[in-house]
Amino acid sequence: MVCRVWTYEKKEDCWNTVLEFNSKSEKRVIWVPYVCTQMRDPACDEASKQPPCVRNCPGGARIYGDLDSPTDPAGKLVAEGKVKPLPYETDKPRAYFLGRVPADVENQLPKPSKALPRRYIPLTLVPY
């Protein structure tokens, strides 16, 4: 999963919007999850092997890497048991999370079916 920018001002999703985390206006930027193409995405940086969402996250909240390697930052969190797996239907989890979205932020997110074109709506909802 990655996040794409949604703005109330433009009423569209895009990659090139300046983040306004401290803004209290209706133009505030929010993030809406959608399915990521990850390393197959041509926008991925070949040098760092990181998807755009990881490189551009202003809070450094995203980690991408080898989940099976205890020396990789992502794998270390899994090995130490500090993360919870997202629901999955494969032989093992492929995405993990550390916590939940704060309630004040969650309440500001639009319903994906109202905010995104149908092709970007997540296939699985994560229960809290």
What does this structure look like?
The chain is an alpha+beta fold. Helices cover 16% and strands 15% of the residues. A 3-stranded antiparallel sheet has the order 2-1-3, with no helix packed on it. The protein has a two-stranded antiparallel ribbon with strand order 4-5. The radius of gyration is 15 Å and the shape is globular. The chain has one domain (2-120).
Keywords:
alpha+beta, two-stranded antiparallel sheet, 5 strands, about 15% helix
> So what's the overall shape?
globular
Topology as H/E string? EEEHHEEHH
- Count all strands and give the number: 5
Tally of structural domains? 1
Number of helices in the DSSP assignment? 4
The low-confidence runs, each spanning 5 or more residues with pLDDT under 50, are: 1-6, 13-35
Q: What is the structural class?
A: alpha+beta
Give the mean pLDDT.
60
Rg result: 15 Å
Concise overview:
With 128 residues, the protein is of the alpha+beta class. Helices cover 16% and strands 15% of the residues. The chain has one domain (2-120).
How would you summarize the topology of this molecule?
Elements: E1 2-7, E2 12-14, E3 29-34, H1 52-56, H2 73-79, E4 84-85, E5 96-97, H3 103-106, H4 112-115
Antiparallel strand pairs: 1-2, 1-3, 4-5
